[in-house]
Design goal:
Blueprint lengths: L7 H8 L3 E6 L1 H8 L5 H5 L9 E4 L5 E4 L5 E4 L7 H14 L10 E4 L2 E4 L15 H10 L8 H12 L12 E9 L5 H17 L14 E9 L5 H15 L4 E6 L17 H7 L12 E2 L10 E2 L34 H19 L9 H53 L24 H14 L3 H17 L3 H17 L9 H14 L3 H17 L3 H10 L13 H16 L6 H17 L3 H15 L5 H17 L3 H13 L6 H21 L12 E2 L5 E4 L10 E3 L11 H18 L14 E2 L10 E3 L4 E8 L6 E14 L21 E3 L2 E6 L4 E10 L3 E15 L2 H4 L4 H7 L4 E11 L11 H5 L12 E3 L5 E6 L4 E3 L2 E11 L5 E7 L6 E2 L23 E3 L8 E6 L13 E3 L6 E2 L4 E9 L5 E13 L9 E12 L2 E9 L12 E10 L7 E13 L2 E6 L8 E3 L4 E10 L4 H9 L1 H11 L10 E8 L3 E3 L6 H12 L3 H9 L3 H16 L1 E15 L4 E14 L4 E2 L5 H18 ...
């Protein structure tokens, strides 16, 4: 907003000042030109009086005039041309620009902080608590708003350049100065000539311009005297003559040039003319050195003619006709009716050139400070003695004339009106008045005399009298419908009312509104209307009526408004800008209206050719729209800022503006976005051409999601080749899974611990081949020389038009280093290197469709060791032709074919990959602040060469039956230049595969189908007996020895080394998991280099195999102790093992039937001896849903009995040693195992060799991983319960059995009309006597309750049943009392007696039968036994049964049985008559020798102990 240092009153006073003409002789002009100044320019800085002036009004009242200013101008006989005025105003606005480098004014309005200018002020909205105080300070502040000096300059130039008109006299000359030099021969005669010339200009019909106030114009005679060159006495004498001729108040002697031009150059004299001459430099200056100019008398011509072309008639005795044409006069070659941006730019350039020339010219070189005072004194004398008395006299004369004429004329006029109209004439509205622009009053008309008197009073600050006269004239003009005159009177009446001291009446704003409407609509004079708007707006703003001021300013800014036949863009731009500032300065700032009108102002500035001002307006408006969700408005503003900046050669700003359009989520249409993109590329290319030596700048498109950047180390995975399937390993095509990642980490940590001799590494870090935002990126990743590094960059195109990236590659920095163990050298850092250091892949074309997210995979090939830093990507950004056709098109086709047609505009740039690490949240300081850790995924360390393993699986099955064993082959290939060794594989499912034991003979390397080759090692059966065949094996041979990690398996490489380029094929057996469903088996291959490295110690290769298993067989087994076996004495226990095998296979698998070919046992204590089969058919076949039952006899191994006795005698000591030494209970099966095979077919499968024993031991190892938890829980209990718990534990051990059953089978499958034979095995682990065991241990409880059919239905309905749980819940604490099942197995009893006994009761009435009671201690501790032979009477039935016989001898026996001891007791039973008797009446009580508690054993004989007593 235009805010001047002076007040509004001062501005209005300076807008209308008394005009004084100046007519100088040639010699006088020559004297002033010594100072590079004309006469008018010489006196201009001193035209404001510094003291008060007094004059008398017509009522003889003293009137005080303050700060009076006069204007002295050369006589110009041509009115200014409209085109010249427009050019002047354009130049004024162009030159006046905001000062660069000043601190911007921050205006706070609501949520907005607006940078406006160099003034600091705050304006807030009413919802702030301190808004009242803020607004009070705002209204009382002098500098409350931003300054707009271009508008002030425009307004001042506009008011000064207004041509004089006939309806008002404010721009008419009041007086004329005649200036003659004292050095002329006849100065008085020269004064006479100048006086005649002035009279001719004013009174002849030859000139219609300039306008004069009154016919009798005041002439003031000025004699210029050059002090340095002239004769002072002569000047004084001439001045005396002038005083006698013109009077002392009509002439003046002005002495100047007291200093010679060649003296005192070092003296610093103030230059008060520079501020005025800068404004006048814009105008077309007349040349005084090229000769004088004059004008042709014909007032219809606008052409300049040199003085010498006018002939002698144009000269009057050496008189210089220096009343020149108007300084705004255009060249005759210029067209006054047109103006465009090109003309503006040309004139602007010439303007700046002239400004540079004029700013270097000094002014007033010959003047001293005394001369300055003389000039100031001259103006004061002229005003005091000449001008003001003349004005006072004129006012009196006009007043007298009006008084004398008013009585006659007004009475006559009023009588006539009353006669014809009959009463008062009502005032008509402006819309009812007709246009009377053709009405002209004669100069002697009373109405004009009133107006003339009002203007004179206004010029001398007598505003009260001026208002009275204006008000009177206004009524007369309206009565006569002279609308132009009426509008002028209304305008000045309003200003006079405002300027009246003390403000006796309010400002009549409606006067101004009427005047503006009259000027614009009726008189069609936009220039006068604009003057009204400028004056009224300042008055309204001074009264804080910003809303009214804004509305007034906007009224003159419509597109249809025309000013003098030309566009009003400049005027509209300035007024819209002022209206915008009015909105921001209201009590409740209207920020969005401010921004909107600044946009409109910028648009009009642009149309007017004011590019800098247009850019400034858009930038200020951008502060409001930025970040508020007005995306379309932001795009428009940024686009305009970009274009204007480019036009002004502010290329960096242009690039920044277009960049904002592209990086924001635009809602523009595709065509508009394409236009924005082309503009940006064009501007950016111009910038890059100017700064070709600078580094590549950042490009805004496409977006890069830096956090989604993935880095992969290694070669791409090979595709499958026929029957060969490469290891899956890791690739960028795989999605990250945190659960899998943790599994792989655990596997690698496990194998590394085994490789380091079971020592867990404290600084273990897993190998990371693929780094992403989920991985641990705090360490520098490791790359290997000659192995590619792939960087996947996520590009996103936010636009609706496709983007074409060409020559896309990575930007990197490399620092060579030697990481060998004996050297650590470092070389110079290289920024850009050749292909001998780092090879980079370049993608020639990469198309990103509209709004598409696309991944680009870029590779680097390191050839040296060192530190690599990946900085970003570099590419050419462009678009393609026919973008709408390619939308939605598959980019891969075109990319491979290279058929994209670029639109010809592309720029090269870069984008940096800056990845922010994870936020730290460990320490208190990190939790209370925001700190981020490092992310080093783009800073790999390139190490020395390492071996590289590739693994191929040949004929690897994808579908198996549960328990099926399939033989396949694995090929290991070393594709590097380094040999590898210590190849191991680790898996969480070691029971599913094996490479064979250490004694395994390598099979042929050519794989064959299972139809011709069995997976087992078999021998022909030589006997027809069903007795078992014995063999033995050590668990150490199968990786299940003491301290072994069964999950870590050594791969049996020949010589344990795989040379570079070599490959080897090894057999591998796969067993289908026991559970039906889809299984993932993770293989982690571990290997090392023969040469030790400082950075990388080992490498790993991952593979995930997926196997789908279907149902086959389910096996259940139960062991019972036998009470009636042969040869029992001293030969330990015997058991019966019942095995139930059921075919649960569905018909979908294509299995015809299953054959049970062999049942094998594995144990250190027991072995299967024979099969008790009641059927003669030795072949066991199971069709679909058929079930078979086997009864097998198991005996204890004799050679192991003594070892077990020794072991269990020391059990209480060993178990605690296990706990404290942290050993695993795999020690329990660390020795040799006895294998017993019962064969039902023609071939014996040697179960103690691979792969049968491998799968058995690995399945068995998972069963023995958990007992340690029980011991820990046991030993953690209190000492008070420890003794009792030990006793209970020993009793429980009596019922435990260590017997494992292996069921081997064959399945006949019909596939493609071809019969295949599949082989497999199932394992059942028997733990407890009498308790049924299953091949599915985790599901046994459900099967026992539901049954087979219900169990199958539950499996199909419950999804969670498919989940594979490999861990049983931890055992609860040991119960305080053993269960009856456990007690029944503590002491085993057996009665030996004859089944039939014949006795002659006639000879002897009592029959005594000897009975032997065998007692067997099944525990591993000493047991005290009590045998009670008394009948226990519990019911009448028992009395009836047992009352007919009795035991003879002692009724109780007390024995102590050692560990596993068998003892016999001789008893006698007495019978009195024949019959069948049950001898199973003895009750046996037992307790451990070191325990107090007595437990009764319950008899669980397989059949009653019946004896038949016969009489003979």
């Amino acid at each position: 907003m235009a805010q001047r240092v002076q007040s509004v009153q001062e501005f209005l006073q300076d807008s209308f000042v008394p005009l004084v003409a100046a007519l100088c002789s040639e010699e006088a002009e020559r004297l002033t030109r010594k100072n590079n100044l004309g006469f008018c320019e010489l006196v201009k800085p001193f035209c404001r009086l510094t003291s008060e002036v007094h004059m008398r009004d017509p009522n003889n009242q003293l009137h005080i005039i303050k700060n009076l200013k006069i204007a002295v101008n050369n006589i110009i006989t041509q009115p200014p041309q409209p085109g010249a005025i427009r050019k002047l105003l354009n130049d004024v606005v162009t030159v006046s620009q905001p000062a660069e480098g000043l601190v911007a004014n921050v205006i706070t309005a609501g949520d907005y902080d607006l940078n406006i200018s160099d003034r600091s002020v705050k304006a807030s909205v009413p919802w702030y608590s301190s808004w009242k105080d803020t607004l009070m300070g705002l209204n009382t502040s002098t500098f409350y708003s931003a300054t707009t000096p271009w508008f002030e300059a425009y307004r001042e130039s506009f008011l000064q350049s207004m041509p004089a008109s006939d309806h008002e006299f404010l721009n008419h000359y009041v007086a004329c100065m005649l200036v003659v030099s004292s050095s002329e021969p006849e100065p008085v005669e020269q004064f006479l000539k100048l006086s005649q010339e002035q009279h001719r200009i004013q009174h002849s019909n030859e000139y219609c311009y300039p306008k004069w106030f009154i016919p009798n114009t005041l002439k003031y005679y000025v004699l210029l005297h050059d002090v340095s060159a002239g004769e002072e006495q002569r000047a004084d004498s001439i001045y005396e003559e002038m005083k006698q001729r013109y009077g002392t108040q009509g002439c003046y002697l002005l002495k100047i040039n007291s200093r010679g031009s060649n003296r005192g150059a070092d003296e610093q004299i103030p230059d008060p003319w520079s501020q005025y001459l800068q404004k006048s430099n814009i105008q077309i200056q007349e040349s005084c050195e090229d000769g004088p100019y004059t004008v042709i008398s014909n007032k219809n011509t606008d052409h300049f003619i040199p003085l010498d072309e006018l002939g002698n008639d144009s000269k009057v005795d050496g008189l210089s006709n220096n009343f020149k044409t108007h300084p705004l006069q255009l060249d005759h070659t210029s067209d006054s009716g047109c103006f465009d941006g090109t003309d503006y730019l040309k004139s602007n350039a010439s303007l700046h050139e002239s400004k540079k020339l004029n700013t270097g010219i000094p002014h007033g070189m010959c003047l001293t400070l005394t001369d300055h005072d003389r000039i100031r004194q001259f103006i004061q004398e002229f005003t005091f003695r000449g001008l003001l008395p003349h004005i006072e006299k004129t006012i009196r004369q006009l007043n007298d004339q009006l008084i004398s004429r008013k009585g006659l004329s007004r009475s006559l006029f009023s009588a006539t009106k009353k006669w014809f109209s009959g009463g008062k004439v009502p005032e008509k509205s402006i819309n009812e008045l007709k246009s009377t622009s053709g009405l002209l009053y004669p100069l002697e008309a009373p109405e004009l005399q009133i107006r003339k008197m009002a203007d004179l009073c206004f010029l001398v600050q007598h505003y009260e009298l001026a208002y009275s006269c204006y008000h009177t004239a206004k009524k007369d003009f309206l009565n006569d419908q002279a609308m132009l005159y009426a509008a002028g009177a209304l305008e000045m009446a309003a200003v006079s009312a405002f300027l009246q001291p003390g403000a006796p009446r309010p400002y009549p704003a409606h006067y101004m509104d009427t005047a503006i409407q009259t000027y614009r609509d009726i008189c069609k004079n936009m220039m006068l209307a604009e003057r009204c708007v400028l004056l009224s707006a300042e008055i309204l703003k001074s009264q804080s009526k910003y809303s009214e001021a804004a509305a007034l300013l906007i009224r003159l800014t419509t597109e249809q408004s025309a000013w003098m036949g030309m566009d009003s863009d400049l005027r509209s731009a300035l007024l819209l800008e002022q209206a915008a500032h009015c909105f921001i300065n209201m009590k409740s700032p209207m920020v969005r209206k401010f921004a909107f009108h600044m946009i409109l102002a910028g648009h009009r500035y642009s149309k007017a050719g004011q590019k800098k001002h247009a850019l400034r307006c858009y930038c200020q408006a951008m502060q409001v729209y930025k970040g508020k969700g007005w995306s379309l408005a932001e795009d428009h503003i940024n686009f305009t800022i970009g274009r204007q900046s480019f036009t002004l050669r502010q290329l960096e700003n242009a690039v920044s503006a277009f960049r904002h359009i592209l990086i924001n989520d635009s809602k523009q249409t595709a065509s508009q976005q394409g236009a924005f993109l082309r503009e940006y590329l064009y501007v950016y290319r111009n910038v890059s051409q100017l700064s070709s030596d600078e580094p590549l700048p950042q490009l805004p498109l496409p977006y890069i999601n830096s956090s989604a950047t993935r880095v992969f180390f290694g070669h791409d995975r090979r595709p499958a080749e026929g029957e060969k399937q490469a290891a899956t390993h890791i690739s960028l095509d795989q999605e990250y899974d945190s659960e899998y990642s943790q599994q792989w980490k655990e596997l690698e940590e496990q194998v590394v611990a085994v490789a380091n001799k079971s020592v867990a590494l404290s600084n273990f870090q897993p190998t990371q081949y693929c780094l992403n935002k989920y991985s641990d990126n705090s360490r520098f990743p490791l790359g290997v020389v000659e192995e590619p590094i792939t960087v996947e960059v996520a590009f996103r195109n936010p636009l609706k038009v496709p983007l074409l990236l060409t020559d896309l590659s990575l930007l990197w920095k490399f620092q060579p280093k030697d990481f060998s163990l004996n050297s650590n050298g470092e070389t110079k850092e290289l920024i850009t290197c050749g292909k001998d250091v780092i090879g980079a892949e370049v993608i020639s074309e990469f198309l990103i469709n509209s709004e598409e997210t696309k991944m680009a995979r870029l590779k680097l090939f390191p050839h040296q060791t060192g530190e690599l830093h990946i900085l970003g990507v570099v590419y050419n950004l462009g678009t393609i032709q026919g973008t709408t056709v390619l939308d939605g098109m598959d980019s891969s086709v075109g990319l491979q074919a290279g058929k994209y047609i670029p639109n010809g505009t592309s720029v090269r740039g870069r984008q940096d990959l800056e990845i922010q690490g994870p936020r730290l949240n460990n320490t208190k300081e990190e939790k209370t602040s925001i700190k981020y850790g490092p992310d080093r995924r783009l800073d790999p360390i390139i190490t020395e060469e390492m071996p590289l393993l590739e693994v191929f699986f040949i004929n690897f099955p994808t579908g198996l039956l549960c328990g099926e064993i399939r033989k396949t082959y694995v090929e290991f290939m070393n594709v590097s230049k380094c040999p590898l060794t210590r190849l191991k594989v680790v898996s969480k499912r070691p029971e599913c595969f094996t490479f064979g034991g250490s004694s395994t003979i390598l099979t042929p390397l050519s794989p064959s189908t299972s139809e011709h080759c069995s997976a087992y090692k078999t021998v022909l059966k030589h006997s027809t007996s069903v007795c078992s065949l014995m063999s033995s094996a050590s668990s150490v041979d199968f990786g299940a020895g003491i301290g072994n990690q069964t999950e870590v398996i050594d791969v049996p490489l020949p010589d344990s080394v795989l040379l570079p380029g070599a490959s080897v094929q090894l057999p591998m057996w796969i067993r289908g998991p026991d559970e039906e469903g889809v299984h993932e088996i993770h293989f982690l291959f571990y290997y090392e280099s023969i040469k030790k490295h400082s950075k990388m110690c080992h490498r790993v290769l991952r593979h995930t195999a997926v196997i789908c298993t279907s149902r086959s067989l389910t096996v259940r087994a139960t062991a019972y102790r036998s009470n009636a076996l042969e040869n029992e004495k001293g030969e330990g226990d015997n058991m019966l093992v019942f095995v139930d095998v059921e075919n649960i296979n569905t018909s979908e698998a294509g299995v015809k039937e299953f054959h049970i070919v062999q049942v094998s046992s594995n144990s250190k204590n027991w072995k299967l001896q024979e099969s008790i089969n009641l059927s003669e058919d030795k072949d066991i076949k199971l069709a679909n849903r058929e079930k078979g039952k086997l009864c097998l006899k198991a005996v204890r191994c004799k050679d192991l009995l003594g070892m077990h006795l020794t072991f269990w005698n020391n059990f209480s000591t060993i178990k605690y040693r296990f706990h404290f030494e942290g050993l695993k209970l795999s020690f329990l099966f660390s020795d040799n195992y006895t294998f017993a095979d019962i064969i039902f077919g023609n071939e014996q499968i040697i179960s103690s060799t691979s792969p049968c024993a491998d799968f058995f031991f690995r399945s068995l190892s998972s069963e023995f991983k958990r007992p340690q938890t029980q011991h820990i829980m046991h030993t953690s209990q209190g000492t008070a319960q420890q003794s009792l718990d030990n006793a209970v534990r020993l009793i429980q051990k009596c019922s435990e059995v260590d017997l494992n059953i292996i069921v081997l089978w064959k399945a006949y499958v019909i596939e493609d009309n071809k019969q295949l034979i599949l082989e497999g095995q199932h394992h059942v682990v028997l733990h407890t006597v009498g308790k049924e065991a299953f091949s599915f241990p985790q599901k046994q409880g459900f099967k026992k309750i539901l049954g087979n059919s219900d169990w199958e239905d539950l499996e199909q309905e419950s999804p969670e049943m498919v989940l594979f749980n490999f861990f049983r819940p931890e055992s609860s604490s040991v119960p305080a009392r053993p269960s009856p099942d456990h007690l029944s197995n503590l002491i085993k009893t057996s009665l030996h007696y004859p089944e039939t006994y014949n006795h002659s009761f006639h000879q002897k009435s009592l029959c005594v039968v000897p009975v032997i009671l065998l007692l067997s201690n099944c525990s591993q501790a000493d047991v005290d036994v009590i045998i009670d032979l008394r009948h226990k009477t519990t019911s009448p039935e028992t009395l009836e049964i047992h009352g007919s016989f009795t035991w003879l001898g002692q009724t109780q026996y007390k024995l102590q049985l050692k560990s596993l001891e068998v003892s016999s007791l001789q008893l006698k039973a007495c019978f009195v008559h024949t019959g069948v008797y049950n001898l199973g009446t003895p009750r046996v009580f037992a307790k451990l020798s070191d325990q107090v508690t007595l437990f009764e054993t319950s008899q669980q004989n397989s059949m009653p102990a019946l004896i038949i007593i016969n009489s003979i």
